[in-house]
Amino acid sequence: MATEAQNEARKMKGQVIAKVEANVKRVDRYEYRVKSQSGKGEYQVVQSEFGWSCSCPDARFRSEKCKHVFAVELSLELRRRIENAKRIVPLDYQSCLSCGSERIVRHGILHNKSGDLQRYSCKACGKRFTLNLGFEKMHATPKAITSAMQLYFTGESLRNVQRFLRLQGVKVSHVTVYNWIGKYVAIMQHFLESANFTPQLGSTWRADELFVKIKGNPKYVYALLDDDTRFWIAEQVADTKYTEDVRPLLKRGIQIAGRKPQMFITDGAPNFHKAFQKEYYSKVERVSHVRHIHLAGDRNNNKMERMNGEVRDREKVMRGIKKMDSPIFKGYQIYHNYIRQHEGLKGKTPAEAANIHIAGANKWMTIIQNAVHDLKMH
Prior knowledge:
Elements: H1 4-18, E1 24-28, E2 31-35, E3 42-48, E4 51-54, H2 57-62, H3 67-83, E5 86-88, E6 104-112, E7 115-122, E8 128-130, H4 142-153, H5 158-167, H6 174-192, E9 204-214, E10 217-226, E11 232-238, H7 247-257, E12 263-265, H8 270-279, E13 288-290, H9 302-318, H10 327-339, H11 350-353, E14 356-358, H12 363-377
Parallel strand pairs: 5-14, 9-12, 12-13
Antiparallel strand pairs: 1-2, 2-3, 3-4, 6-7, 7-8, 9-10, 10-11
């Protein structure tokens, strides 16, 4: 029988093969041809009632799951992700936001402190609406509010955001900016965590903890990250590092992804292993727990450390978190997943890598207005 390390090595080689589309050719639903890594010929991978089999020596003589079978499984997973991709697009104001009818007409100008807004009415259902859905009764324009959120989550302090807005003619306090963040983070969180937007995650997840101060007291933020897409799956704020029960973090991961990972990578903290045994381990489902992180090679936690660095940089600007239920963690999670482009993903956001695509030049506005529209429709 192959060891866990050998299986992991074959899987990594399978990932290399599957990344080049021409390496895996589909003959029919049950047969694939996979190019040899040496470039000399190809192998036949066939599915039967007993699973996948391959014509390569590893599979035939050792009866092991080979890199070519891993490549086919990963290729099928990539295809499934493409087919199940979700798109969140800017709202179409050529039709009624309530009934979808195109029988809309202009219905005067609405004057308020933040400027003039065109009002519309629908001849089909009689409803009236404006182009500032989600920003009604706000004393600033949608552009000003979403610009403030972008500045804040890219590293500016509340007072610096306030100064920027004043240069744009928007006179608000830094407390108002914080209230905007709390309001719209809650709206977006409820919408994005609905069953309609399940991220298509990889088979390997990572977890780690980050030391922060909340109201001057030491706390730890436990985070769960997908290895393939760098999608920040879930977080948990706790009092201790090694003894905290992190099962809620792992349970939340299953709820969001709709399944368990095949591999779980952490440091040697005992609470991670206890939670793994309770939530992920099964004699039926083969889920492995890698607990020995190295500085080099495949078994490092560099991706997790980079994400921790993002949060640390944000915390330094804030000079500590002021309360346990702060919207900052959830807000930064949304920014990390849906707004921020990552060099390691070739300019994609983790959400795009997980097949959730946010369209439009202003992604904050696209998410907020879709979230409010969805709330009103239900």
